[in-house]
Amino acid sequence: MLRDRVRFIRLLKKGAAKTQKAASELIGISQRQGQRNWRLYKEQGLKGLIKPPQTGGGQTKLKESEFEELKKDLLEKEVQFLHEAVSHVKEKYKQEYSIPGMHFVFKRLEIKKKTGRPINIGQDKNELDKFKKTSNS
Q1: Does residue 48 sit in helix, strand or coil?
Q2: How far is CA 105 from the centre of its chain?
Q3: In a domain? residue 21
Q4: Which contacts qualify for 99-107: CB closer than 8 Å, 24 or more apart?
Q5: 8 and 44 housed in the same domain
């Protein structure tokens, strides 16, 4: 992407392309993207043009120590749903997260969804204990 930006400006400056539209077509970018590149070049120069675009990620509301504490809390307590985790963080750390935001917190902390194993409703607990005792030998 950065290479295309520089190529776009070079085509216009050297005269290989007479218009922004022609330069955009030669590189294979949209005309609108060419216009944005030209405006960025005019406002910020070459340094602004080759600066990588910033993404919104990487900003956290909790400190690293709070993440470790939260991970311990989530593993100890029976928090099963994201909305329960959102309310837990709001109460304890006074930080608000959305449901998708909490999903990414779980992903960062490597906490996976826990589901219970299915149990037969006709299963007899005494028979199960007897089976466990006899099958371990």
Answers
A1: helix
A2: 9
A3: yes
A4: 105/62, 105/67, 105/70, 106/82
A5: yes
Helix (H, G, I), strand (E, B) or coil at 123: coil
Are residue 6 and residue 46 in the same domain, yes or no?
yes
Q: Residue 135 falls within a domain, yes or no?
A: no
What is the pTM assigned to this prediction? Answer: 0.43
Nearest to 73, CA basis, from 54, 61, 87, 60: 87
Domain membership of residue 7 as a residue range: 2-50
Burial bucket for residue 94 (CB in 10 Å: 0-12, 13-18, 19+): exposed
- Largest Cα separation within the chain, whole Å, is 88
Residue type at 117 in one-letter notation: R
Q: Residue 57: inside a domain, yes or no? A: no
Strands (E), 1-137: none
Domain tally, the chain? 2
Is 114 within a domain? no
The identity of residue 46, as a single letter, is: L
What is the C-alpha to C-alpha distance for residues 38 and 45, in angstroms, rounded to an integer?
A: 9
pLDDT tens digits, 89-115: 888 888 888 888 888 888 888 877 666
